[in-house]
Amino acid sequence: MKPLENKIIISTRPLSDEDTIKSSLIGKGAIVLDFPMIQIVINDQNTEIQTTLANISSYDWLLFTSKNGVDSFFRLLKNDMQKTTAGLPKIAVIGKTTANEVTKNGCQADFISSGNTSEDFIAELKSEIKSNDKILLALGELADTKFEDGFADTASVTRLNVYKTIETDVHPVEIIQRIKANEYDLLVFTSPSGFRNFVKVMYQNNCKDPFKIACIGTTTEKEVLKLGYAPLIVSPKSSGDFFSVEIENYFSK
User: What domains can be seen in the chain, in order of their start residue?
Assistant: First the structure.
């Protein structure tokens, strides 16, 4: 019998053909139901993006903090027929999942943070950066300014918002009813915006706490706590395999 055999886990993540968390949970026997609270949309080419891509070789470092940032950046780059990956600066990423996404796009990460948080990433990369280096951050519109602030005293930092996060407004009634009836084992959250929309959807459908919550990262955890809820599981790593093991350990207790 698999460790998560017949456990019903509801994923609020954006729909994706390469959802490592979902595939890892299914591999352990879980039944994963999609209940996406957000979708990721690549920003349209605009003057800022076009100018930045045209001058990409002037940067010393290109920083990615998520798989979405990597995917969106390279899609924008490929849409610009004048640009290739040949002239890119050194690439720094948080975690192996983000590094793997860089590899899929024909490049290699020059620096992979060994830590699990943005604070770890900033502290470790500072030892690699020179005072006159130029850094380009490829982020989503909702990301805070911790990276700009973290490197401001070390190098010149430019932020490029390569994608935006949009709340979904159509949700399967059968899953809402399942949550109301407590006919599930766990709800999975991987972003603050996803959790915020979930709370709004539950309120609109008169569905109240307690919710059985599992989340990835301290940023998502802080949002859960801020809105008055308590997660059962908080995974420090974004790896799908690591997260599924954390969930497995929870149910084995």
Answer: 8-37+168-252 (3.40.50.10090), 41-165 (3.40.50.10090)
d(CA 137, CA 146): 11
Contact (Cβ atoms closer than 8 angstroms) between residue 214 and residue 235:
yes
3-class state of residue 11 by DSSP: strand
Give, in order, the Cα–Cα distances in Å from 105 to each of 63, 114, 192, 232: 15, 22, 27, 36
Helix, strand or coil, per DSSP, at residue 163: strand
Residue 217 confidence (pLDDT): 84
User: Using one digit for the tens of pLDDT, what is the confidence trace for 26-72?
Assistant: 999 999 999 999 999 999 888 999 999 989 999 999 999 989 999 99
Written as one letter, the residue type at 179 is I
Chain center to CA of 16: 12
Asked if 135 and 157 count as a contact pair (C-beta separation under 8 A), the reply is: yes
Q: How far apart are CA 94 and CA 143, in angstroms?
A: 14
10-residue block means of pLDDT along the chain (253 residues)? 93 89 94 96 90 93 94 88 72 90 94 82 92 94 90 92 94 96 97 96 94 92 95 86 91 87
Does residue 214 contact residue 185 with C-beta atoms inside 8 Å? no
Structure tokens at 153: 């005293």
What confidence score (pLDDT) does residue 79 get?
77
The interaxial angle of helices 20-27 and 240-252, nearest 10 deg, is: 40
Residues in the chain: 253
pLDDT of residue 116: 67
Cα separation, 161 vs 200, in Å, equals: 26
